[in-house]
Amino acid sequence: MAFKYFIYKGVRYAKDAYTEDALSFAENEFEVFDDDVFNITYPKSGTNWMTEILNLIKHDGDPTICQTVPIYVRSPWLGTLRFMDQMRNLTRPRIISSHLPYHLLAKSLSKSKAKVVYTIRNPKDVIVSLFYFTKILSLFKANDDFQKCIDGFFEGTDMHGSWFDHIKGWMQMKGDRRFFCITYEELLKDHRGSVVRLCEFLGKELTDAQIDSIVQHSSFSSMKDNKMSNWSLLPPEVLDHTKGSVLRKGVSGDWKNHFTVAQNEYFDKVYQENMKDLNLSFCWEQE
Ligand code: A3P
């Protein structure tokens, strides 16, 4: 994936979107409140979907906020250049999105009771989603070679570094009562059940009708049609809407339409090697 970048504490960040000052602020100065909810992901893993769900839970299923305030304003990305301004307008409990690695936020989180929702997606589908995303986001130089995307993924040279390091870092919180880990595939398989479990984790007691509203308004079709959630308000010089959409397909297993047999075998081999010490299995592995 080609983009202008700088390295902060061993990880690549896109110039123009992130700055060293903003990352340093996130790491050292950002004051975490006990009622904060962090929506953490590796890019293209369902960040926006979880943002929508968490905002709807916060507002008891009322979609007004999601239909009137852009998704990147109601839950801005910690570590980005604009976060420091955007955070001033957040109401509590704040829902903060971030792709930052655990080691940057560990210090701030350890001093608070803030909760972390960590969404993971089948990395093969992450690569596919990223492949298409690079075609629309102007930060990237468009790349038509899918193999290059796979190479970048394994070399850890993509924006936000290695997927494996991201997982290994955040999984250090596994077992902590403030940590909730879910896969994109679980969300797809059981959207309502996942919302119910999230409500339990967040200590929110909602009625069946409120839960139904959350599920309805965070569905792929609702979000794709909602200009506050589909990023269509961003100007064409930032996001080329003629070439695709952030809400592209919203399915699991699209990798099967992109990986060759050889790429898939190679991927599985390297994946096993990297994950063998983690003692974790994820829902997508049974797909
Ligand atoms: P695809 O490109 O495979 O369609 P992120 O928000 O982390 O950037 O992730 C983007 C991916 O999440 C895209 O995947 C997008 O379609 C998918 N997504 C966003 N909202 C969704 C929803 N409500 N239901 C299912 N998938 C969703």
Rg over CA atoms, rounded to whole Å, is 18 Å
Strand fraction equals 5-15%
The CATH superfamily name is: P-loop containing nucleotide triphosphate hydrolases
Q: Which fold does the CATH topology refer to?
A: Rossmann fold
Small molecules bound: adenosine-3'-5'-diphosphate
- What is the overall number of helices? 14
Strand order of the largest sheet: 5-4-6-8
The CATH class:
Alpha Beta
Rounded mean pLDDT is 94
Characterise the protein shown here.
By secondary structure, this protein is α/β, with parallel strands linked by helices. The protein has one domain (2-286): 3-Layer(aba) Sandwich (Rossmann fold). It is 44% helix and 11% strand. It is built from 14 helices and 8 strands. A 4-stranded parallel beta sheet has the order 5-4-6-8, with helices on both faces. A two-stranded antiparallel sheet has the order 1-7. Strands 2-3 form a two-stranded antiparallel sheet. A hairpin with a 2-residue loop joins strand 2 and strand 3 (11-14). Helix 1 (20-29) packs parallel to helix 6 (102-110), helix 2 (47-58) runs antiparallel to helix 12 (208-217) and helix 11 (191-202) packs across helix 12. The protein is globular, with a radius of gyration of 18 Å. It starts with a strand and ends in a 12-residue tail after the last helix. The model has no long low-confidence stretch (mean pLDDT 94). Bound molecules: adenosine-3'-5'-diphosphate. Adenosine-3'-5'-diphosphate binds next to helix 2, helix 7 and helix 13. The site of adenosine-3'-5'-diphosphate (A3P) has 20 residues, from helix 2, helix 7 and helix 13.
